[in-house]
Design goal:
Blueprint lengths: L1 H12 L7 H23 L4 H24 L4 H12 L1 H13 L7 H21 L14 H28 L3 H18 L1
Helix pairs in contact: 2-3, 3-4, 3-5, 5-7, 6-7
Length: about 190
């Protein structure tokens, strides 16, 4: 009888389905990202850079939660919404960089078309490699490596373009030269003492 009681206690303490450490850390990171998005939403709702930051944080949260949604067996519609938001993370980063470092930037139809092409490529790659729904010569098993790498390479190109825009945009920013001048002035004053 004591063995039966002990097994019941263990069952209560340790449920049959445990959350892995990486899943718990993903959820914690999602909470932090959500809190940051809430703060930005509260204080910078009318600012273009604030809205772009909120969009970026939403896509990052979706990227963090996507493996959990997929592995826990969410309905297909929910999974695909998280998938598309997750795929949009590099685009949201690019948009954030453009809005923040280029005051004259306005999204044009060509930007929307390129974003749609990128999202479609990632979505087709998911359907071909993960869900294996797309049969045919183009999506044959020997082409899976190509379809796995293509969205990642495109995302890398988008992020590198955004970082290049940040680098070139930071040169025209007046804050950095002022900070450097102030720092050199303080260093000169301290060395003179």
């Amino acid at each position: 009888e004591s063995v039966v009681v002990a097994s019941r206690v263990v069952t209560i303490i340790r449920p049959p389905i445990m959350w892995a450490t990486n899943e718990v850390l993903r959820l914690c990171a999602t909470v932090v990202v959500g809190l940051l998005a809430g703060v930005l939403l509260r204080g910078h709702r009318d600012d273009r850079a604030g809205r772009a930051s909120i969009l970026f944080l939403a896509t990052v949260a979706a990227h963090l939660v996507l493996p959990l949604v997929w592995m826990r067996g969410a309905p297909a519609a929910v999974l695909h919404v998280f998938l598309l938001l997750s795929l949009a993370a590099p685009l949201a980063f690019w948009l954030l960089a453009r809005v923040h470092f280029d005051d004259d930037f306005r999204a044009r139809p060509v930007h929307a078309a390129m974003a749609a092409a990128f999202l479609a490529t990632g979505y087709v790659a998911w359907l071909a490699t993960i869900e294996r729904r797309l049969p045919g010569l183009l999506f044959a098993p020997e082409n899976r490596r190509f379809w796995t790498l293509l969205p990642k390479l495109l995302a890398l190109a988008i992020v590198l373009h955004a970082l290049l825009r940040v680098y070139t945009g930071a040169g025209t920013d007046l804050v950095l030269p002022r900070l450097r001048a102030r720092l050199s002035e303080r260093c000169a004053v301290r060395t003179a003492d």
